[in-house]
Amino acid sequence: MTGKPVDKLSSAEAEKELDRLAREIAEHDRRYYAEDRPAISDAEYDALRRRNAAIEERFPLLVRPDSPSHRIGAKASAKFAKVVHARPMLSLDNAFSDEDVAEFLGRVRRFLGMKDDEEIAIMAEPKIDGLSASLRYEKGLLVQGATRGDGQEGEDITANLRTISDIPLRLKASRSAVLPEILEVRGEVYMTHKAFDALNKRQEKDGKPVYANPRNSAAGSVRQLDPSITAGRTLNFFAYAWGEISELPAKTQSGMLEKLGDYGFMVNPLVKRCETLEQVLKFYRDIETRRARLGYDIDGVVYKVDRLDLQERLGFVSRSPRWATAHKFPAEQAETVLEDIEIQVGRTGKLAPVARLKPVTVGGVVVRNATLHNEDEIARLDARIGDTVVIQRAGDVIPQIVRVIPEKRPRGARPYKFPDKCPICGSHAVREVDEKTGKADVDRRCTGGLICDAQTVERLKYFVARDGFDIEGLGGTMIELFHDKGLLKEPADIFALTEKPEKVSKVLAAHRAQLSEERRAAEGKDPVKTKAKKEDREDKVVENLMAAIERRRTIGLDRLINALGIRHVGETTARLIARHYRTIDAFLDGMKAENAREELESLEGIGGTVAEAICDFFGEKHNVKALDRLLAWLDVTAMAAPAKSSPVSGKTVVFTGTLEKMTRQEAKARAESLGAKVAGSVSAKTDIVVAGPGAGSKLKDAQKHNVQVLDEDAWLKLIGG
Length: 721
Known about the structure:
Elements: H1 11-34, H2 42-58, E1 82-84, E2 94-95, H3 98-112, E3 122-128, E4 131-138, E5 141-147, E6 153-155, H4 158-161, E7 182-190, H5 193-205, H6 214-222, H7 227-231, E8 236-245, H8 253-263, E9 272-274, H9 277-290, E10 298-305, H10 308-314, E11 316-317, E12 320-321, E13 324-328, E14 332-345, E15 351-362, E16 365-371, H11 375-381, E17 388-393, E18 400-404, E19 429-430, E20 445-446, H12 453-464, H13 476-484, H14 491-496, H15 501-522, H16 536-551, E21 554-556, H17 557-563, H18 571-581, H19 584-592, H20 596-601, H21 608-619, H22 621-631, E22 635-637, E23 652-656, H23 664-673, E24 677-679, E25 688-691, H24 697-704, E26 708-710, H25 712-719
Parallel strand pairs: 2-13, 21-22, 23-24, 23-25, 25-26
Antiparallel strand pairs: 1-6, 3-9, 3-10, 4-5, 4-7, 7-8, 10-13, 11-12, 14-15, 14-17, 15-16, 17-18, 19-20
């Protein structure tokens, strides 16, 4: 990950980069968690997250509502029933050095108000590289198993998980292991190296494609629609955590792991309780040296505060717990040749360079592609076609290019000239210039807009994707086919397909016939010209597609706004806007109003860049007309008013003065967990000021605005202790 040093960024530059990072990381999350087909390496992904976190730390007021720090994973697959987790399945923050680990322990002590030299016990365990799963037991019986999904909602894969021998269908009970009424066990499904090799040998023997690595094999195995396929593969499970539980049988992380073992789960035997930073780092070094001999893949070591009461106090911050972190292993590297640079055009017109590499094996995985981000990155590397490059891989995915080896450069290799015209429509491709700073954007974008087929097709793909209208059966290939045949130009055309099923059937039949002829030609057989037949299976495809489109004629306001593909507006921002306007009529009226931008900017979590992008979208007549044509097909449901789940839900709270019963961080985290908004200054919109000893100007401001003032004891009584 490259770019201007964070401490040199202007506010405008930081805002633009946070937008880019939010979108890029969200796409990688979708590929990794929902499709099991990641597009970049773990090291490159971690670098993106580190830079995002660093910018947010320096510019806290620019933290976006769709920031990667608020999100985990991707949406559940439409192939499986959805499962809402009783308690979110969060991911972990990462540490990459000894200093990062020391800082993690320091943050824990500071949050809890402990002294710097005060000991705090840590449980350390190998970080398994597999698929996270949750198992729900009621009265000792397994009743449900699910994937992590996006952390809030996963996929129901109960039948598949039941086939794994490490997962008990009934928990063991004894005097020392009394079973809770409800127990949700969390852990990792993985495949050993031995089982992975055996699976690939069977695949080769059957003439089927081999798998890239054990992690993808495990993930693909448990996400099969046919449980018998899962049963035919050797999978394992390590339990290491829990979600909903009716009663905790232990007071420490280590004690809970012992109980899980008593209940019949496999718990990693290498876990260790450490009491000092030195012991923690010694464990990391030991596991790193033993990594290759373990027989299964790990990509680091996880550290967790051992005492559960301290975990409870520490709580969570956005996407991860404060009481845990993952210490990642360094990346693996290899040399290969950069054979070509291909330019792809996204739905926003961004020209994205992709490196095509001579296939090379890194850590047991064959890699062929890498992202080059933008033309500045190509210039920084001085990457030329034909160059020998060093690639780096820390996980199971496409690597990043670390550097070029100039001494191995072939004669005549010329510096790469980034195109200034769109390779799809021929329109100019430009780098937008920030009016305030005069700085050019890092990305070059096609100016073709609606005349660029790449943008049209990509926008339609985004419209029907999982976070948008989620139209089952209308995938990328079908979108491209219907667009090529003139059936799709804008979103309203999707719903118009329901009035011409015969035409859709003919297009699909002709496409099927063409593929059949191409296969015959590839096999060296004489082409046979046959009239495309209307098969029963094809009728069923069309019937299912029409039904899927009809089901999406009723859509929530937030999903509609997200599906429009407005630049800078993602799922979280769309939900914020929908919660504010609540109905489609109020939203459209708001966009027509003269103060539209001011009203949008007044919403917490929406800045000037996002507001400007929304107003620009509705300022274009062709966009408004296209939306009107779409709305003629739809019934847009109103956004429900937020439920009041606590006495302070939806209220704005300001803390001032010295808090004596908890740290300021702890108080803020508790308030936010109860649905309150914590502000740094007092205004007429403030609902409550919690004032401790030494309160100054904020207390005076509260009195000035007639804001309710509570001392710490009254605040604790209000929120329930």
